[in-house]
Amino acid sequence: MELASPSSPAPGPDAGPPRPEASGDGGARRRGRRRRAVIAALVVSVLAAAVAAVVVLAPPAIRREIIAEARARGVALDPGAVDLSLGAIRLRGARFSLLGVRGLSGTIARATIELRGLSPARIAAEDVAITVAGVDALEGLPAWAAQHGARAAELPLAASRVRLGYRDREGAPEVFALADATFQRGAGGPGQRAAGPQPGARPPEAGVLRQARVLIAGKEVARTDVGWSLGAASLSLGFGGADVPSAPLRAELRPLPSPSATLELAPAPLPAIAALLGVDAGASPVIVSGTVDLRLAGGADRAALSAAPLDGAIALTLKGFTFPHPKELDGLLFGDTTTLKADAHIPADRQRVALSRVEVAAGALKLGGAGEIQRAGADASIGMDLSGSVPCSLLAGSAAKAHLTGVVGLLAGDLARRALAGSVSVQVRVDARASRLTAARVTPRAIPRCKVRL
User: Fold this and answer.
1) Are strands 379-391 and 365-376 parallel, antiparallel or unpaired?
2) Bias regions of kind Pro residues — which residues (predicted)?
3) What burial letters (b/e) apply to 245-277, b meaning 16+ CB within 10 Å?
4) Following DSSP, what letter does each residue of 198-267 receive, concatenated?
5) Is the Cα torsion angle 102, 108, 109, 113 positive or negative in sign?
6) Residue 180: burial class (beta carbons within 10 Å; 0-12, 13-18, 19+)
7) What angle do CA 122, 128, 132 make, to 5 degrees?
8) Per-residue pLDDT of the chain (454 residues; tens, 9 = 90+)
9) Which residues have a Cβ under 8 Å from the Cβ of 82 and sit 6 or more positions away?
């Protein structure tokens, strides 16, 4: 009989079949799964910590970088609320001003700064409001453009619902505004420089506000493109064109040494010019051109331009317009062009223009006198009292040609010119409305002082 070894006891009657030992490969797999789970947990923890760090720590750093980038371009910026996303930074409720420019400030409701890597590549802004208070801003803008304009213009910018308003001082009523315009610079937008600078001269900053509502004292007078150009000593605006040189109505504002302005009318149909001034001129065929120079009246307060009286000079050419007249004066009012020169005084209420030293010329007729332009809603009334003298010989010759044709008329006119001496004193009252210039009412009065040559 064999006895069981003490180290290998015999299985009892209830023992089941023997269990296989676990293989070495299975244990290794379990250990690998445990290691991967631990690593994944660590990665998740690290990522969560990184996200938390970005959320908590990045905005202050990004705000500082945004402020520094803006300052490098001449802009003092309060970014407002800053939101981060992949490839872009969004601002809400931002405020800004221009370094060294007093009286200019602005707000931006929303802006998106697109990034290329870590650098700004493009800005898109909405609801941009710029306020200019007083002439100090106009004085500071040229110097700002000279120092910061080139760097600021490097970054493409698109803005919608732009409003630019001028008032005499902070808190005063708005005098002039361009509202609801769009602006684009760079990346396919209009060039930021004006063309054709003088050799060796720095080109002015330039751009265009598209489809701006033009408001004067809160009343809309037109909706048009307004080009702008900022030179070394002046700010130019072009109404009705994408750039200042091509605009039919141009205004140049010069803040120094005393505020002054020049309005220039390019040869353009009267209805187009009238529409830009808020006046309906109907379907007039008249082509108007000329200049209006304005300056502060003597002793006027330069700090309150909207309430300061203005003096100036007017020079206009009306092609396609002559005074209504009897045919007897055709020989004097020849051609189709009338010119007008006058000194102008505009009082503080801006409701009328007093005209003095008026000179009107149409053909051989030259008259002088005084008058007044009175604003009446969207129109304006014009009244002038003019006087002059016409040589009797010219008047008689014109009348002879009006009633006698051919050689007979020429001979009669020549005979009248030779036979008559002296002059006819002419007094003319002109009443017209800007909207119906060709229907002007002309009331002449003549006092003959003629005599026959012996």
Assistant:
1) antiparallel
2) 8-20
3) eebbbbbbbbbeeebbbbbbbbebbbbbbbbbb
4) PTTSPPPEEEEEEEEEEEETTEEEEEEEEEEEE-SS-EEEEETSSSTTT-SEEEEEE-SSS-EEEEEEEE
5) negative
6) middle
7) 120
8) 333 444 444 454 455 555 544 455 666 766 666 666 656 666 655 555 444 444 444 567 888 888 998 999 999 999 999 988 888 899 999 999 999 998 899 999 999 999 887 788 899 999 999 999 888 778 888 888 888 888 888 889 999 999 999 988 888 888 899 999 999 886 555 444 444 444 444 455 788 999 999 998 888 888 999 999 888 788 899 998 888 988 999 999 888 888 889 999 999 888 887 777 766 666 778 899 999 999 988 777 666 677 788 999 999 998 987 776 666 566 666 778 889 999 999 988 878 999 999 999 888 788 899 999 998 766 788 999 999 887 776 666 565 555 545 544 455 555 555 656 677 788 889 898 877 766 778 887 877 777 666 5
9) 59, 62, 63, 66, 89, 90, 91
Q: Which two tokens stand for residue 405?
A: 């044709």
Inter-axis angle of helices 406-419 and 392-403, nearest 10: 160
Q: How far apart are CA 423 and CA 430, in angstroms?
A: 22
- Taking a C-beta distance cutoff of 8 angstroms, is the pair 371, 351 a contact? no
Encoded tokens for 109:
């409701």
The C-alpha torsion from 29 through 35 and 38 to 39, rounded to 10°, is -120
Task: Tell which residue, 387, 393, 402, has the closest CA to residue 449.
Answer: 393
In angstroms, rounded to a whole number, what is the distance separating the alpha carbons of residues 131 and 116?
Answer: 32
- Rounded Cα distance, 84 and 113, in Å: 10
Under DSSP, the state recorded for 51 is: H
